[in-house]
Amino acid sequence: MNREGECMTIDPKPAVTCLSPSGDRRRGRAAAMRRGPTARAAGVWLGTIVLVATLGSAEARVQEAVAIPAPFEVGESPAGNYLAALVAGAERDTVAAATFSREALRFDPHNPHLLERAFVSAVSNGNMADAFAFAQRLIAKDPANSLARLALGVKAVKERQFAAARAQFAKGVSGRDRDVTAILLNAWTYVGSGKVRQAIELVDKLHEDNFAVFRDYHAALIADVGRRGPEAATRMKAAYEADKNTLRLVDAYARFSAHHGDREEAIRAYEAFNQVLPSHPIVVAALETLRAGKPLEPLVRTPEQGAAEVLYGLGAAGGRQGDELAAIIYLRLALYLLPQNSLAIITLADIYERIKQNEQAIDIYESVPVSDPLRTTAEIQIGLVLESMGRSEEAAARLKRIVEDQPRNEDALSALGNLQRAHKQYAQAVETYTRALAASTKPEKASWPLYYFRGISYERAKQWPKAQADLETALRLMPDQPLVLNYLGYSWVDQGMNLEEAFGMLRRAVELRPTDGYIVDSLGWANYKLGRLDDAVRELERAIDLKPSDPVINDHLGDAYWKVGRKLEAGFQWNHARDLGPEPEDKERILRKIEHGLDDSPPATKAELTNNGG
């Protein structure tokens, strides 16, 4: 029984929160927590809306380092080190790639290909001293290498050698008048040289409509740093009015307003964003500062910070678009300029987590300053990474410590509840979700995931009336939510209740998520249980096309094939399900079917189900 989809967005935010279907398969695929509903703060620009999930802003206590990197050794063979560097690069293992590339280059120091690989590996791993040294050697052989020029230009910005930085950017970018990176970075170097008007004129060369918000945003920041207040106010207002749903832009606008004496407008802007995404830690911290009558500093105050903002925005956008290596490089350069940028740190760690470099992700999450509002975000994410690495006891201990320190932190409670549910600790999960609901300061509609998760936990704990009440509440709060439609609809079919409404829910869930193999499987299996065997086979075959490696769906299709007389194909599907690693109780049942087949009595009819279950 597949009642939970493969991946769901719990809160609107830049990284999708996935609940990998594993854990309890007593009735199919139960969604275990891969990444719980916690914030992944990443301000994606170029017109992309960024909304980040909520977390509390209390300072987390310092934790011991928990990442244990996998050991590796460099060899004496140049070819072996080169091949190892290639493999590490393909796997985005930046630590190993940097190490092996450097060793390979040591044996052949004049090889331009090895030199470029060593440079890219060093900058992507954050070894900036090595990266800059390699970049100098690289441009001696390839003067137009744009990435090496970019790195050296950023180094010059850090050293406040702004004319030298412009020279590097100019030599490394072809068609630079059209290149966003070159235009914006050069603009900030002009600010550093005291040429604010020239900087704004350069930014205004971004004529395309897609760049309008980005253009006005950086023009406003430049004008503000250059003490051109009226122009800064006009441009910042234009950027904000064009996009009020982007956290980074709202934060910049509110900070600008507060810094220029309009504290009430700053509070209004934050509170308006709070309606879109309640209780984000950056917003919570800023509102506390403003209401305490304390000053709120502008987001950017120096040319170096402005250049870091450019690189951060481009890196975050690249991460969203799937270009992980470019995103990592941009973010490493941004952090070289501004090491305390917690949003850049969180974004970089999230990318490493997504590419399965978990030790690196943990190390980076741990670098968020302890006093930063996003420290709790980082702490929770470390717990979730530990869970994904199979270190469940450490993950639970870390999340419990956060909850002890911040007993009303809804997102920490929700993450802990997900962990407990993934490990079939349903009574504990119910208690934790209940605490999260009691602690919630969000609008009721935003709490639908907690009702959904608690409903699942109640159902697994065999408390169906409470489960049904929670699932119905979740659906009332978020009508047409496909995962809730799927879970509640299938549960009703399973019990022979509300059959017409249940099938309508399942069909609607499939319409909303037609490529979710688990939801399609639910519809197929519901048809099977009602004896609609042709419909069942059709839907289950489609589910297999979408999720060919799922043991439960293969098992279901085998049952349907058997009932329609396709017994040879049924045996094939059951054997395939057996080989895909089903849960132990499922495997025992599958083995019995492989040996003896199914009872050939027909499935229950609608009337029988209705008589037995209402």
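The record above closes out task 2.4. Task 2.5 opens with a second protein, given below.
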Amino acid sequence: MLISHNWLRELTNTQLTPQELRERLTMVGLAIDAVEEQPADSVLDVEVPSNRPDCLSHVGIAREVSVIESGQLSLPAEQPAKTEGKAGSFTSVVINDPDLCPRYAARLVRGVKIGPSPEWLAKRLEAIGQRPINNVADITNYVLHEIGQPLHAFDFARLADRRIVVRRAASGEKLKTLDGIERELTSDMLVIADAERPVALAGIMGGEDSEISNETTDVLIESAYFNPDSVRKTARSLGMDTEASRRFERGADREGVLRALRRCVELICAVAGGVATEDAIDVYPDPTSATVVKFRPARVTELTSLSVETVEMKRILDGLGFELIGESADRLDYKVPSWRVDVELEEDLVEEVARHTGYEKIASELPPSDSAGEYHSTEMKQRLLRVALNGLGYDEAINFSFIQHQEEFELIPAFAGNGATQPELSNPILENASSMRSTLLPGLLTSLRHNNNHGIRDVRLFEIGRIFATSKPGQLPEETNSLAMIATGGVVEEARALAARELDFFDLKGALETAVARMYLKPLSFSKADVKHLRSGQAAKVSTEDGTVVGTAGRLSEAIASAHKFRQPVYVLELDLSSLLAGPTKEVHYKPLPRYPMVVRDISILLSRTIQLDEVLATVDEQSVSDCRGARFVGVYEGANIPADKRSLTLRVEYRSDERTLRDEEVEERHAQLTQYLLQKFSAEQR
């Protein structure tokens, strides 16, 4: 927005230089990008915030300057025009779509003489980058930059039936605008029409067929308020950006329509001659009432720490146009001026006082608190979890909380048990993000596909985040923390370019178990399960030591893998992190290093495929064979010379005494005892 320093001086009698104004206006939230020095003037390029359409005019900026200098705003004196006849005797206005045009006013000036603008008007417009056209068009532009209300002048003789109809365009209807471009319109665009055809795009640009020319003698002046969303949508659809559309898009002054119209008609009669109608046609079917804000001066200190006298607050708000309509010991009631479309709350008035008192005076300090700050009880555990997974080669992913509706994934037990569903957004920003996520897996799968599309096949990712579910319509969704992991491709060792082997389920399982141990939690157990999004026979439920099921793990189902175009096995897990962290913890005790050597013996047994490794290891611990320190998994064999319903499992059992070195015959005796028990327990054979 270009602002003339000379024009500001006329409105405020400011004594500040352009450079001083640059600094002072910037400090109240109206940044000055540059100051251009001209031979007889200086022009300030003001960056007006999107919520301050009232500052898209010289009067709006002058109002701020008058408060800065504790001065008075001097509005232009009225110049009564010569009038004759009622507007309704010559023309009419009909609004067919009041939702897009809540107010439309028009006034007729007859007998004007079109010609060049006087020197003062032409120079004023040229100073702010406006090319003079003719006296009538220049006056509408002048009032726009003076007051901020866009206006348009029609050649009254070119309007069919001499009337105005505000309506939606017919689909495919065409209009050649003042820039000479013929535009095809759609049914959601608002136009100003006469009895036969569109003559202007509402709030954006007039039409070529009704523009002012040297032959024009009667001029119909339009002043209206158009729906900001409608103007913005039409302007973007047609690729147009005009001085009028910029103001209507942000919100014009609905109550300033007649004021701007009167000012324009007075100037036209003074510059171009002519006789105006005594009144204006003002179609305003649903007038709005003024906003009243209850303002407590004490809130200024509470919210900003600024100490401002009540008298100073009144001066600032009065200078900005807020009308004091009520006052009590601790409260001031202000009526918000119609041009301040951004003010609705008490906090908005606090901001106005703070702006003109000085943001730079607000002290830098922490807000008061009655309690000391501290980590969340699970914060350190989550930090250990991240460190552990990073050390195992897993990268952390962060995905959006809004996703498409998903039904192919089974929810974590905390949600699945109560019939919870994925919460839907009532007003989604994006079509592909219409729901709140109830699982982290869709986001991780999208990240995996993105990596695959860029030629990266060896991927290990994890994500920690909030997930949401709702069990009853109309209620706020439940939420909890979740951990999800994904692994696919090969195991790439340090300083190696090629993968040593392919990742499998046990890599994923081992990473989780390592991370759980790093958090000093008790070990998890894995058992067979049927999970909707996992491959049958390669799915497990994950439980804590006390039997609480916290999640699932396994190989991604073929249906989901095919939908994402994955060509290699993908292993995933997801669990309720909040429940996991609230589960049993493992006490860490000091143990001295063993003084006597360990003796190991391997055992290979042929057993049913339905028996899980965890059952065998648990049996070893339960048997409590003397000096047995536990068993570890060595390997499994399936194939030649092994029945299809069986597999060979090899364990390494460790024996050690705390009192002496064990003799071989003692170890063999204990090992035979353990072997015999396992063979009987699982109906197995020794290999």
